Amino acid sequence: MRKLVFMTLALLAVSVIACSSQSDNVIARVGNQEIILDQVRDFDKMFQIVFPSADSEFNAKKRFLDSLIDVRLLVIGGYQNDLDIDREVMDIVEIQKPKFALDELFKREILPRIKITDAEVEDFYEKLKEEVHVKHIVVDRQGLIDSIYDLATKKGAEFEQLAKEHSLDQNSAYAGGDLGFVRWGQVIDDFQNEVFRLSPGQISKPFATGSGWHIVKMAERRESDPGPFERAKFQIMGMLQDRKRQVVMGEYMDQLRSKYEVSLDEQTYSSILELSNKMFPDSLGGKHFKKTTIDLNILQPFQKKQILAHFKGGEISVEEYLQRLESIPINQRPELKDSDGIKAAVFSMKLESFLRAEAQSQGLDKSAEFETVLKSFREDVMADRMRTLVTEGLPDVVDNDIYSYYDSHPNDFDEPQQYRAREIQVVDRAVAESLRTLIDKGEDFGKLASENTVRPGLKERQGDLGFFYSYKYPALYGAASSMRVGDVRGPIEDVNGNWSILKMEEIKPPRTKKIEEVAAQIKNLIMYERQLEAVKKWLETKRKETPIEADYDMIWRTIDKDEYDKG
Known about the structure:
With 567 residues, the chain is of the alpha+beta class. It contains 23 helices and 18 strands. Helix 1 packs across helix 10. The longest helix is centred in the middle third of the chain and has 31 residues, at 229-259. The chain is globular and about 85 Å long. Mean pLDDT is 88; it is low at 1-23.
């Protein structure tokens, strides 16, 4: 349930607008509009590009500043056309107000505590120089994982068979719990902290994460090349920020849980639990039956309206709880007998209202920062509406336009050679080689694929990949390019260390798509180009009549030329 809470607040984190702090560092003036240097600095955070030289960084940021100037011109046009009081613009802004209040709460409570040091980035980079091959089993109960651990470590049961029988992770269970090779940062902290301390062949003791109870088996460790540090550091910094944000949000959630403590109405809870026990068995087919819900249709109206839980500022009825439960993935729903799990679910369901109450209690919806963000958003909406106004009245795209475009772009509608093949993908080369031997001896490829392939969704299709291009399966496409129908090729290794056996089923030669197939696509392309041209001409006119001052040298002064000299 903790995962649901993080997911809710993470969405708020993503929605935070990169709003520039007001300062004297005005880099451009467009009429009565100002652009602050910090807005150009945000370029680094948004795009995280590694530039080959100081000049290339300067030119990219100069183009970015020019695009900000264009937006300011559109905003000025919006004010001149009274778009600030346009009903559509006002409605959009009004809808977003609560979200921006939550953004301000995030910036006040979470953002200041997310700081990444150079030492943390370097340490993370060093850990990327190794990767581990692991298998795992995850279940939803501690008692069950304890018994599975005993079977695997004391009674000689095969780990892989136990994973197939018990693990809730369907993506890996049928492969014996195999997750393949994992690098530091690819899995959550609670999981990787246990995994990376193991030795090859060792099985971890049971441990818990937000996904359930796990045991992990270390298959092997090997060296890995993370690439040059300068290229990797921005990605590492982003990953560290995400992880630290999760930690900080977890701490903040704990504060909210204490403040908005959820308590169950014992009488209502007991009646619902009793009804569930009458409706469902404790086990089915010899396995524990997880009772998480009951059918609303069998409840009397008064039962639906009964209060299931109370919390500061409100309550939740049985009906609302069961309805909201439908939006939670089945494997994350708490059992009805798990009172703490139900409290956590209610907290997650009501989290947004708790956050809004916090924002309101702190007056964030009336703060100067909130008004600044709201004004910035309003002007962004006005700029978009202005683009629409500028492009109104453009001529319709007619058939002659489509034919002319098709004839003048002879190579744009070429379709490369396509291959339809069956594949058996496994995580171990030795397994792939043994499967290839069976195929060469006449075993049915489709049957072997349905029993062994680990590629999601391909078991039931007997490994049929359908027609594919190089961008989807580059390693397979490269092998397919020299195959004929009926050929078998492999084992073939992909970038993730998996191994594939490929059988060619059908080949479509290269062709040029007919105009009937692409007419709608061409129509959209032509209209898009006309819209771009209309906006471009409008901006050119607006630039001539609007005073514009831009200090491009200020960009150059912010660039660390010494870093490029070192390279």
